[in-house]
Amino acid sequence: MNIPQNSLVLYKNGPARVAELGDKLDIELEDGRSLRVRLKDVLLLHPGPVRNLSELTMPAGEVEAACELLDGGQTTLPELAELIYGAYTPSAAWSTWRLVDEGLYFQGTPEAINVRPLAEVEQERAIREAKAAEREAWNGFLQRARAGRCSSEDAAYLQEIEEVAWGQREQSRVLQALDCQQHPGSAHALLLRLNHWSESINPWPRRIGAILEPPAIPLPDPPHESRLDLTGLPAFAIDDEGNRDPDDALSLDGDRLWVHVADATVLAPPGSPADEEARARGATLYLPEMTIPMLPTAAIEQLGLGLAEISPALSFGLNLDAEGKVTDVEIAPTWVRVQRVSYQEVEQRLDEEPFRTLHELAQRHRHRRQANGAIFIDLPEVKITVSDGRVRVEPLTRLRSRLLVAEAMLMAGEAAARFALERELPFPFTTQDIVANVAEREPSSLAAMHTLRRSLRPRQYSSQPSPHGGLGLEVYAQVTSPLRRYLDLVAHQQLRAFLRDGELLDAQAIVARVGAAELAAQGVRRAERLSREHWTLAYLQQHPGWKGEGVLVEKRAPRGSVLIPPLALEARVKVSENVAPDSVLPLRLTGVDLPAREAYFRVG
User: Fold this and answer.
1) CA distance 361 to 369
2) DSSP string covering 79-96, please?
3) With contact defined as beta carbons under 8 Å apart, do 573 and 601 qualify?
4) What is the DSSP letter of 464?
């Protein structure tokens, strides 16, 4: 390649003037610097002469006309410069090369330039404009995000952050660009900072993978079958105000207790679509903001006790002996006429029948469990509700009517387990290893309750009967919530098969159902627990001036675990060394970290 002195060459994508010739070339750059380079480091654009690179001005030209004329052909730099600018001058050569380097109309080398068809040019131009608009939108979003705000045009970027916050994706270029950790909590915090999310969005159920749509499963027509008619016995479904899935009720026939339970198996027999769906869900999901039922809503409407004048039930009849032991167990499909009443109403009527006798039976059964080493922990509980984004936290009052119902449900569970055991039915028993060396099984202080709860082993479900140490029962099964818990439904399916001379599930099938249902139910319980924590902190965020009292339940320097009864919330609070467990401390809220599920308090 013959390169004359004062010629125009290309060096590292920029123009240069050849100042001196020799073994190497001395060139002058646009910024005035001089360099000595090898011949192969430059590319000749025009032989010159060029006295100063400032002479390279952009002339007016006919780029599209040249492109249309050559339409997909090939040319050289001098020829193309002539076509576009009417002359092959240093300025025209440099301007032409810039068009080649841009790559929209032309591509190649000075000796072989390929001309793109105009249709292809238009397509490429649209792509480039879209990319330029995307870059502009991206940079605008980053600028707004760093300033702590967002706009409607940022929807796609915000959706990407949300997908990380929901746990639907692990990596996000948005989080990376904003120097945020690739973590759901970090994404949640960013969405709050941008005011795109507020405390009224609970990410936990979706992040865990909970099913948030009610089942849409067709239900069969209930079978026409004989049932024991107990409609002459007054029956009471005792629940919280507003309960929408009443699945148990109580009756007295003299001193004989009947626990009626919604007969869910008539619409969800083993292997049916409703049964399979319920197994996948494990349990009804109760969240402060909504309830997602385990069975289709139509099943609850048809089977909920007290929702119709007469309801089908599976009823557990039993007596208690003088020591409070369950005897004379009878289980039968029944018709019942149920009246719905609240805990508060029954509390006011405990001196009336049948509630007086029901309460006496509950007390007798509780005393027997107490004698058998049952554990009784009475930690504070609250009811959390959400309406239009506002959170309400209401402490649950300790009512004797709640004890009455709880003990009746335990009696029914014990009766069902004994019934199955005596008849060698494969059954989903509920067990808990006996807690040894517990000095106080019914502690009165919150600190002692807190310590005892942490020492308890989790309950288990098994096809093999075993004691439930925490309840003080030799054998037990959960059977009173088949509309809400899958293993209760399985227990009902076995009892129905036995009572109707149907086909029983074998032990292996019970084990498989226990495993599947408990795995699903664990996710439900976790979603419920984390959601309650979220909404409790949301309540505090909505009440930034919150003040109240907490009880020190565990002392660990420099921070202790403090239980706040009106919130049923446990928090780590800095306390002085001389504060003893069970001390009541005045607390003041100092901050809330919603994504981390942390509330911060100060004593005083």
Assistant:
1) 13
2) HHHHHHHSS--HHHHHHH
3) yes
4) S
End-to-end CA distance of the chain: 87
Which range, of 409-413, 574-578, 600-604, averages the lowest pLDDT? 574-578
Q: What is the dihedral of CA 523, 529, 535, 539, to 10 degrees?
A: -170
Kindly tell me if the per-residue pLDDT of 245 is higher than 90. Answer: no
Beta-carbon contacts of residue 358 (< 8 Å; ≥ 6 apart): 250, 252, 257, 404, 408
CA distances to 6, 18, 264 from 21, in Å: 9, 7, 98
Instruction: Count other C-beta atoms under 10 Å from residue 30's C-beta.
Output: 13
How many beta carbons lie within 10 A of that of residue 509, not counting itself? 16
The structure's pTM equals 0.85
If one counts every other C-beta atom within 10 angstroms of the C-beta of residue 457, the result is 11
Bridge partners for 11 per DSSP: 14
Alpha-carbon span 266 to 223, nearest angstrom: 7
What confidence score (pLDDT) does residue 557 get? 72
One-letter identity of residue 32? G
pLDDT at 470: 94
Q: Beta 338-342 vs 235-239: how paired, if at all? A: parallel
Angle at 600 between CA 595 and CA 602, to 5 degrees: 175
Q: Respond yes or no on whether the N-terminal peptide bond of residue 558 is cis (omega within 30° of 0).
A: yes
**From CA 249, how far away is CA 572, in angstroms rounded?**
41
pLDDT in tens, 301-346: 999 999 999 999 999 999 999 999 999 999 999 999 999 999 999 9
Q: pLDDT band for position 1 (50/70/90)?
A: low
Q: pLDDT tens digits, residue range 470-522?
A: 999 999 999 999 999 999 999 999 999 999 999 999 999 999 999 999 999 99
C-alpha 60 chain-centroid distance: 62
CA dihedral sign of residues 478, 483, 485, 489: positive
Structural domains of the chain, ranges and CATH numbers in brackets? 1-52 (2.30.30.140), 120-197 (1.10.10.10), 228-534 (no CATH), 543-603 (2.40.50.140)
At 434 the pLDDT is 78
Q: Are 331 and 419 contacting, i.e. CB atoms less than 8 angstroms apart?
A: yes
When pLDDT is cut at 50, 70 and 90, the band that residue 367 belongs to is very high
Return d(Cα 61, Cα 88) in angstroms, integer.
12
Please report the beta strands in 21-169, taking only residues with DSSP state E, as ranges in sequence order.
25-29, 34-37, 43-46, 74-75, 106-109, 112-115
Structure confidence by residue, pLDDT tens digits, 32-66:
999 999 999 999 999 999 999 988 988 889 999 99
Q: Are the beta carbons of 316 and 416 closer than 8 angstroms? A: yes
Query: What is the number of residues in the chain?
Result: 604
User: If residue 259 lies in a helix (H) or strand (E), which one and from where to where?
Assistant: strand 256-262
Amino acid residing at 234: P
Q: What is the DSSP string of 314-380?
A: EEEEEEE-TT--EEEEEEEEEEE-EEEEEHHHHHHTTTSTTHHHHHHHHHHHHHHHHHTT-------
What confidence tens digit (pLDDT) does each residue in 390-420 have?
999 999 989 999 999 999 999 999 999 999 9
